[in-house]
Amino acid sequence: MPSGWPTPSETTGGASLRLYFDELPDSGEKVEKFKGFLLGLSRYARFTGAGIAVSIEDIAEVRSHDHTLLQCLDVVLGAMAFRLNDRHKNNPPGARHRGKRTKAKEKLYQFILAEVRKIFPNFNIGITTGIQGDYENRWRHPYSHWLFMPNDTSYEKALTKRGRTTNDPTRPT
After folding, report:
1. Is the CB of residue 128 less than 8 Å from the CB of residue 145?
2. Cβ atoms within 10 Å of 152's Cβ, excluding its own
3. pTM confidence score
């Protein structure tokens, strides 16, 4: 564990991790294998060193439709993913204007972003909030946001906003 990185045991006296998943779409055997993997995290050095425990009874599948809070979370995450994947720009096939649901999802995204920007002014939803120079912020920040990128991700800088030049003839329009 990096030096200076606080652990839950230092800040909260240890932590038990509870994992609730929406119903997993795989077979019973695959679901049990996945739960076994999650249970194995308790033996991972960073977890044991941080005082984080995972037990089998704390790994559960739930139906989000049966829980109001999980339904709200589904709506919020859906609106964020909708906007981050640029689906807010899509018109239904054959339509000239965006649909009511598309507009509603974008308004929800804008509201959420405004709330996050009260905590982090000028927050860019497309990047990780990070620790801002202090590992303890992993536990202190009221909001954290990570940009998940696979290890084998690659991109062409020339196709990014900051990588383009205004007179670039290869620039997509």
Report:
1. yes
2. 5
3. 0.57
